[in-house]
Amino acid sequence: MDRSAGQEAAPVLSARGLSKSYGGNRVVSDLSLDLPPGGMLGLIGPNGAGKTTLFNLLAGAVRPDGGAILLVGRDVTAQPPRARLRAGLGRSFQIARPFARMTVLENVMTAAQAQTGESALAALLRPARVRSEERAHAARAREILDFVSLSQLEGEPASVLSGGQRKLLELARVLMAEPRVILLDEPGAGVNPALLDLIADRIQAINARGVAVLLIEHNMELVARLCPRVIVMAAGRLLAEGPPSEVTARADVIEVYLEGMPA
Amino acid sequence: MELLAYAAFFLTVAMTYATICLGLNVQWGQTGLFNVGVAAFVGLGAYVSAILTTPEAPGRLGGLGLPIAAGWVGAALAGGVLALLVGALTIRLRSDYLAIATFGVAVALQLVFQNAEPLTGGAFGIGFIPRPFGGLQRQALPFAALNLALTVALVLILYLALERLAQSPWGRALRAVREDETAAESLGKSPLRLRLEAFVLGGMVMALAGAVQAHFIGFIAPANYLPALTFQVWAMLILGGSGNNRGAILGAVVVWAIWAATAALIAHLVPAGEQARASSLQLVAIGVILCAVLLWRPQGLLPERRAVPRHLGRP
Ligand SMILES: Nc1ncnc2c1ncn2[C@@H]1O[C@H](COP(=O)(O)OP(=O)(O)O)[C@@H](O)[C@H]1O
Ligand SMILES: [Mg+2]
């Protein structure tokens, strides 16, 4: 994938001066960023910097106090999450949110978009059409489960998955929605080294297929491996931007990380 | 002969409870909507159908004399409208608000049944509700058998329709909302729309069940629609298996059998003067069984199915 060409194209996702406060506490403050189509951008910063809140703003789970969000050039600031997903923006959660009492396959199939059978009337009155759609969705869900190495578990309730498998399931679900941009919130957190490698590899493969990725991650090795560029957030603001090796060598970046550590 | 007629009568009533239970299963079992006002929907269906179908009576409004089928349709529609109103008022239908709202509605509606005398007959209720196959009433067995066939057919049709819905993407989306609303929303679902639809569908089924029950018994009174009814139906669903339509039906039959058996026991063992008070022991018995189920088999007799459906089986 030619990333330098991507840089020049109009961004697939942009934030313009986003702000969000919780009870007088400015969690995200005048934050702007651009994600080029097919790009991979790391988002790092100490705990409490506002990274997850920024994701919530971008995905539509939380309304900003100010600023705008553009998705493929369209202003989606006032739109609910499902409209943004329809426009191509998917996300995962820092703490995985599997549908625990549903099978792994059902978890993934739920994420298919524009399902005829999601209307109760159509489900009752057009069984043939719903069934053929279901077959197609099941086939695609199984391909995706293969891709994330969860095929063996398709019939199990998601509650039996390990922490790392839950992260993979989140990835599978969001892929089922066929997004052009995905926001991944710490996909490597709490994952054992073997699975971590798999997750990193899968993220790379997704990006290689042309899906743009905005990646929050604390594991700097992983960030350096995946992301040609990172941005650093501290106290709700953009602190630095550049290649990971340069950014992490900056004195101000080291300082905010050290502040977050116990003395 | 008499025993057969009694068995048919018992099962017919059980089928009406099974219908209520199927309605609650859509709301709670599949969608996680905590409706503690089941009695309101059942009672509304009973009164609406009674008012629509009974013959004109002096001193009472309604009594439109419509056919029974019209009463059933009217009851289901009324249940849907009530669900829509409660749903719209508790906007997000979150569990705590919904529980308070549905309980409040059930208390309020029961007071209406009790006090809107010109419409509902007050404490005495409404009698002479036309019974299906009423022409055969004097022949106990055929009458009981035909009514049983009718309610079994109704339960079967509802079961097949609700099962098709449960297996469909719509049913899957309901379960997703039940499991994790935020995740479901992030995957493009509209929790608000799905909850409202499930609540309305469940309300319609419960109200229909109330109407069917009223027409089978032939008379209704406000005392039939107290919170104890809600409790009974919840016990049925939990015992049978929340989230499983077959479990809902089985639970209704089992709990109704326990109810009938304890009633018979009390009639035998307790002196006549004390029987009214002793009947509260029936609720205690149900409560004890409910606790036992929650302790030892919380998923119920027939747990929710969590397997890949056969038609999606690997080729
Ligand atoms: N819903 C909320 N209500 C109040 N405070 C919140 C809420 N969400 C996040 N915060 C606060 O915002 C700050 C940033 O949190 P978060 O975005 O999760 O940071 P990060 O993901 O960078 O660790 C924290 O101080 C957190 O306590
Ligand atoms: Mg976070």
TrEMBL record, chain A:
GO molecular function: ATP binding; ATP hydrolysis activity
Example of a GO cellular component annotation carried by this entry: plasma membrane
This protein's record includes keyword Transferase: no
Gene3D superfamilies assigned to the protein according to its UniProt record, in alphabetical order: P-loop containing nucleotide triphosphate hydrolases (3.40.50.300)
Domain of life: Bacteria
The ABC transporter domain, residue ranges: 13-260
PROSITE patterns with a match to the protein in the record: ABC_TRANSPORTER_1, ABC_TRANSPORTER_2
Family annotation (CDD domains): ABC_Mj1267_LivG_branched
Keyword Nucleotide-binding: yes
Alphabetical keyword list: ATP-binding, Nucleotide-binding, Transport
Protein name as catalogued: Branched-chain amino acid transport ATP-binding protein LivG
Organism: Rubellimicrobium mesophilum DSM 19309
Lineage: Bacteria, Pseudomonadati, Pseudomonadota, Alphaproteobacteria, Rhodobacterales
TrEMBL record, chain B:
GO molecular function: branched-chain amino acid transmembrane transporter activity
Keywords: Cell membrane, Membrane, Transmembrane, Transmembrane helix
Its membrane topology: Multi-pass membrane protein
Subcellular location: Cell membrane
InterPro entries: ABC_transp_permease, LivM-like
GO cellular component: plasma membrane
Keyword Transmembrane helix: yes
Chief localisation class: membrane
Source organism, top-level taxon: Bacteria
Protein's name according to its UniProt entry: Branched-chain amino acid transport system permease protein LivM
